[in-house]
């Protein structure tokens, strides 16, 4: 018939792209909610609302919030391991390396990932599988890489003297505090926060 458009069914490739885009949309929404409210304080309905989809549609991609949480923890640990490992190959002085790592950690998506990892480490209310994933990545060895960078910075006079492990704990304490601040601040304000943190390490 004239004037009637023929609708062509989507091929497998197009369907896969839609499927992947929807999963990413749900994951991004869930990461924000989990980081802000924790696993116990989060409901699938909250995630669906943040993702701007129906709750029924969200269950087509993830059967439970635990399943979604575990996948996000896996993604977060992969990103964290990659960021810490990159310190060895990163150009620049120890202080420049720590400054670059700090920028990555305070990036909007990354900060939520680090907050998620912290929840798994301190909470007894998360799935055992999430804790197993954290253990698989051998956080102590990742921490050793950071301590080595701090030691090199102390030798070169870039960082203050003292126990490098305590210095690292100070660094993480400040980072954790900055992560909890509202993220509506301009990028310039984040740069100021990072500069203040670097000054603390030098004094």
TrEMBL record:
DNA-binding region boundaries: 43-62
Name recorded for this polypeptide: TetR family transcriptional regulator
A GO molecular-function annotation: transcription cis-regulatory region binding
Gene3D superfamilies associated with the record: Tetracycline Repressor, domain 2
Organism: Neobacillus bataviensis LMG 21833
Database matches in InterPro entries: Homeodomain-like_sf, HTH-type_TetR-like_transc_reg, HTH_TetR, Tet_transcr_reg_TetR-rel_C_sf
Keyword Transferase: no
UniProt keywords, alphabetically: DNA-binding, Transcription, Transcription regulation
All residue ranges annotated as the HTH tetR-type domain in the record: 20-80
Top-rank taxon: Bacteria
Record-linked Pfam families: TetR_N (PF00440)
PROSITE patterns given in the database record: HTH_TETR_2
């Amino acid at each position: 018939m004239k004037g009637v458009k023929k609708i062509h069914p989507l091929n497998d490739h197009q369907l896969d792209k839609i499927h992947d885009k929807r999963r990413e949309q749900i994951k991004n929404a869930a990461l924000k909610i989990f980081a802000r409210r924790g696993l116990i304080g989060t409901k699938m309905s909250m995630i669906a609302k943040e993702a701007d989809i129906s709750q029924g549609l969200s269950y087509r991609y993830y059967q439970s919030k635990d399943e979604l949480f575990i996948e996000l923890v896996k993604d977060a640990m992969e990103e964290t391991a990659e960021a810490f490992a990159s310190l060895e190959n990163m150009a620049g002085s120890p202080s420049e390396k720590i400054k670059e790592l700090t920028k990555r950690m305070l990036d909007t998506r990354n900060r939520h990932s680090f907050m998620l990892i912290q929840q798994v480490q301190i909470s007894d209310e998360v799935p055992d599988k999430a804790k197993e994933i954290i253990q698989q990545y051998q956080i102590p060895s990742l921490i050793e890489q950071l301590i080595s960078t701090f030691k090199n910075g102390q030798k070169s006079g870039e960082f203050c003297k003292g126990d490098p492990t305590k210095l690292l704990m100070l660094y993480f304490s400040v980072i954790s505090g900055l992560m909890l601040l509202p993220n509506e601040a301009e990028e310039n304000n984040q740069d100021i926060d990072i500069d203040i943190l670097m000054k603390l390490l030098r004094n």
